[in-house]
């Protein structure tokens, strides 16, 4: 199509750089039927070569285009904040919590002694803690202090009888079953991280532990994300070779997570483009090194780099990795272009360069893909991003691999054991 005619017939709704798959109708391409976006948008491959549209694209701005954009639920339209902003927000939460605790913790005295250096002190204290851990522990402590405002008289809010009154209150009011247990874990976290002075009686109290245990009596059975069926995986692999460029990117991302046994968040924030090492036209491996993942926050592991590797051909007759990487290059979705393996979706047509896609966003894409390959919608909604990591590990368990071998495949290292992270790609 002539670029001039495109500019003449379309209203110029600007999208920063090349539009992302969800901007160009990837999910509509996946979901055939009334929700299809393909009737409303033009694929980037139809817009011309890189020379014609080097870094920009136009999307249809007709009145019905706005309705199409709601393929993702409204709750997930807000773009996630960059990791450093999220972590900075958690530092502010913990600073307020330390001020509430007061002289009962050693960190309070350290912050009082160096008020101008408070930001650096907090960053150093929590350097080995994951941001999600800080968020969970901070939330549990914030709820406790909120309860104390209306129920506790006196300054010793961490006495055994106060802690017991709180966990019993949670049980009697039918709070979420894990809330009392999470609070006790948060207390242990505070004792170890900010030097909170706690009596041993708090953790040795039979009535406190009993109240936490009884809270689980009404809890529903825990349901883990199931692994992806092998028939579905075979169909997804075939999509990377015969589907459109957009479908190849999305299906290939699922295959990458499955065969490298990666967590969604760890994979989508990779900053290096994966490479393939092929023995022939069919067999080979895809590999990349992750600079930082969930298990590499400790001192010894921080700069080791975790090798991420998997087979370039799975259950189908053709390799999935090569078509996936080719489609990424064709639509300018490489790490060099975007800063991460898969950028996060923003509101409307937008996306966020340098910010990785979140697990909830990927889960929604995965469920749409499963419906497209024939999975019933009621069944597809049971699967989540963690299903990808669990798939190969479940196959390995059924095949009879040892626990140590499965631990290595899953990138799980025991506390104090850095050997699995030091192993080369050849070992994996």
- Count the DSSP helices: 21
| Structure classification | mainly alpha
Within the CATH hierarchy, at the fold level, what is the topology of the largest domain?
hpI Integrase, Chain A
> What portion of residues belong to β-strands?
5-15%
Give the number of domains.
Answer: 3
Indicate the mean pLDDT.
76
Task: State the assembly state of the protein chains.
Answer: single chain
What's the N-to-C terminus distance? 47 Å
Describe the biggest sheet? 3 strands, antiparallel
Q: Could you give the count of β-strands?
A: 7
CATH superfamily of the largest domain: Intergrase catalytic core
Residue stretches low in confidence (pLDDT < 50, at least 5 long) are: 1-77, 423-428
Reading the helices and strands in chain order gives HEHEHHHHHHHHHHHHEEEHHEEHHHHH
The order of strands across the largest sheet is 3-4-5
- Our Rg estimate from Cα atoms comes to 25 Å
Instruction: Look at the structure and give the CATH class of the largest domain.
Output: Mainly Alpha
Helix content: 40-55%
What does this entry show, briefly?
The chain is mainly alpha-helical and 428 residues long. The protein contains 21 helices and seven strands.
Secondary-structure map:
Blueprint: H1 3-9, E1 13-15, H2 26-30, E2 57-59, H3 65-68, H4 83-101, H5 106-113, H6 118-125, H7 131-151, H8 160-172, H9 179-193, H10 200-204, H11 206-214, H12 230-242, H13 245-259, H14 264-268, E3 275-278, E4 284-290, E5 306-311, H15 321-330, H16 335-338, E6 343-345, E7 351-356, H17 359-372, H18 377-380, H19 386-399, H20 403-409, H21 419-422
Antiparallel strand pairs: 1-2, 3-4, 4-5, 6-7
């Amino acid at each position: 199509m002539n670029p001039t005619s495109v500019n003449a017939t379309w209203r110029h709704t600007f999208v920063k750089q090349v539009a992302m798959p969800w901007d160009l109708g990837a999910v509509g391409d996946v979901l055939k039927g009334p929700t299809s976006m393909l009737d409303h948008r033009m694929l980037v491959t139809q817009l011309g070569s890189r020379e014609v549209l080097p870094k920009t694209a136009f999307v249809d701005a007709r009145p019905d285009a706005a309705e199409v954009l709601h393929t993702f639920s409204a709750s997930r339209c807000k773009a996630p904040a960059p990791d450093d902003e999220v972590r900075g927000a958690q530092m502010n939460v913990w600073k307020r919590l330390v001020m509430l605790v007061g002289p009962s913790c050693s960190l309070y005295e350290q912050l009082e002694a160096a008020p101008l250096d408070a930001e650096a002190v907090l960053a150093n204290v929590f350097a080995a803690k994951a941001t999600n851990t800080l968020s969970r522990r901070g939330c549990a402590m914030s709820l406790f202090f909120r309860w104390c405002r209306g129920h506790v008289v006196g300054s010793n809010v961490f006495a055994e009888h106060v802690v017991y009154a709180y966990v019993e209150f949670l049980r009697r009011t039918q709070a979420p079953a894990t809330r009392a247990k999470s609070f006790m874990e948060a207390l242990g976290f505070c004792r170890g991280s900010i030097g909170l002075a706690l009596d041993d009686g708090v953790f040795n109290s039979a009535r406190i532990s009993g109240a936490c245990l009884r809270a689980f009596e009404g809890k529903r059975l825990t349901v883990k994300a199931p692994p992806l069926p092998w028939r579905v995986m075979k169909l997804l692999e075939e999509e990377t070779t015969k589907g459109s460029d957009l479908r190849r990117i999305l299906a290939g991302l699922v295959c990458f997570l499955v065969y490298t046994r990666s967590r969604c968040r760890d994979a989508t924030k990779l900053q290096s483009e994966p490479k393939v090492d092929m023995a022939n036209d069919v067999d080979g491996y895809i590999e990349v090194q992750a600079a930082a993942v969930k298990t590499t926050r400790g001192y010894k592991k921080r700069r080791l780099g975790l090798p991420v590797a998997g087979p370039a051909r799975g259950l189908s007759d053709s390799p999935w990795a090569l078509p996936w990487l080719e489609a990424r290059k064709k639509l300018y979705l490489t790490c060099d272009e975007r800063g991460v393996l898969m950028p996060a979706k923003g509101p409307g047509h937008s996306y966020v360069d340098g910010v990785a896609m979140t697990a909830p966003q990927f889960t929604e894409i995965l469920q749409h893909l499963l419906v497209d390959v024939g999975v019933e919608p009621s069944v597809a909604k049971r699967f989540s991003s963690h299903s990808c990591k669990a798939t190969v590990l479940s196959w390995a368990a059924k095949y009879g691999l040892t626990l140590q071998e499965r631990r290595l495949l899953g990138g799980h290292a025991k506390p104090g054991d850095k050997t699995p992270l030091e192993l080369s790609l050849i070992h994996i």
